[in-house]
Amino acid sequence: MTLPFKVVAFDMDGTFLQDDKKYDYHRFNHVFHRLQDHGVQVVVASGNPAQILQQYFTEYTDQLTILAENGAQALERGRQVLASTLNRNKVHEAVAFLQQDLGIAPALSGSKQGYFPRNTSSEFMEHMGFYYPKHVIRDLLPLPADDIFQISMLVKDDAVPGIKTQLDTKFHGELDITPSGNDSIDITKPGINKGWGLTQLLQRWHLTADDLIAFGDGDNDLSMLQLAKYSYAMPNGNANVKATADYLAVADNNNGGVLATLEDYLERAEK
């Protein structure tokens, strides 16, 4: 018996990673090599920048694909094969609106590094500094001489709907505003999301959405869950994710739900 899919894509925070930002390395190693034996491609699909995702998988970067920046950048076996960045004029407008009108400090995710504004809170530095080990602190306007994948900001979950509405009203059709969980919002290029990025990869590999299994927990995972034939919500995922996905992972992120679900498939295929 063979596996019904040829590509595995999983989100990181709240899906593959435990709440402490760790994962069972030995268990993953075993599952990863079993998947390789079946010819399955593994895609780490996250809103996070490639620089932190590569640190999680240092021993695997030449064997898997990292789909970073909510689908805007893909590194296949360590080599960039996809990059779609924001219009610089729109980045300028968004940064000015966030700082001057909403009083929000944004982080810019550049192709070279992250960019943080001056005089930010310790909470901002702790949170964003984790995801951008390589970053500089500077005035964000004028913009740095770098291509920008997305703009991220810290917003408490209860304030997210109101902030999203203001941003949607201001930049309707020009920028996509997506809550990404963990008290944060991402601003991305319209139409560029995890589903789009995975579609480009599937075409590159001469595969289709029927060959894809995907796991997610937050709104920025909806596009890839809508795409995948085998779509799994995490038990800890939000209501939108559970309504979109066709299946529920066998355990939550703190109990290895992604790996446990894949192990079930592997055990059935290897009988």
Fraction in helix: 25-40%
- End-to-end distance, in Å? 7 Å
Q: What's the CATH superfamily of the largest domain, by name?
A: HAD superfamily/HAD-like
Class inferred from helices and paired strands: alpha/beta
Which fold does the CATH topology of the largest domain refer to?
Rossmann fold
Instruction: Give the overall form.
Output: globular
CATH architecture of the largest domain: 3-Layer(aba) Sandwich
Largest β-sheet summary = 8 strands, mixed
Number of DSSP strand runs: 14
- Quote the average pLDDT: 97
Total count of helical runs of at least 4 residues:
10
Beta-strand level of the residues, as a percent range?
15-25%
Description:
With 271 residues, the chain is an alpha/beta fold. The mean pLDDT is 97. Strand 10 (176-179) and strand 11 (184-188) form a beta hairpin. It has helices at residues 12-16, 25-37, 50-56, 88-101, 122-131, 160-170, 194-204, 222-227, 239-244, 257-269, and strands at residues 7-10, 41-45, 65-68, 73-76, 79-83, 106-110, 114-116, 135-137, 148-154, 176-179, 184-188, 212-216, 230-233, 247-248. The chain has two domains: 7-83 and 192-269, 3-Layer(aba) Sandwich (Rossmann fold), CATH 3.40.50; 88-188, Hypothetical Protein, Haloacid Dehalogenase-like Hydrolase, Chain: A, domain 2 (2-Layer Sandwich). The longest helix has 14 residues, at 88-101. The strands form two sheets. An eight-stranded mixed sheet has the order 5-4-3-2-1-12-13-14, sandwiched between helices. Strands 8-7-6-9-11-10 form a six-stranded mixed sheet, with helices on both faces. 35% of the residues lie in helices and 22% in strands.
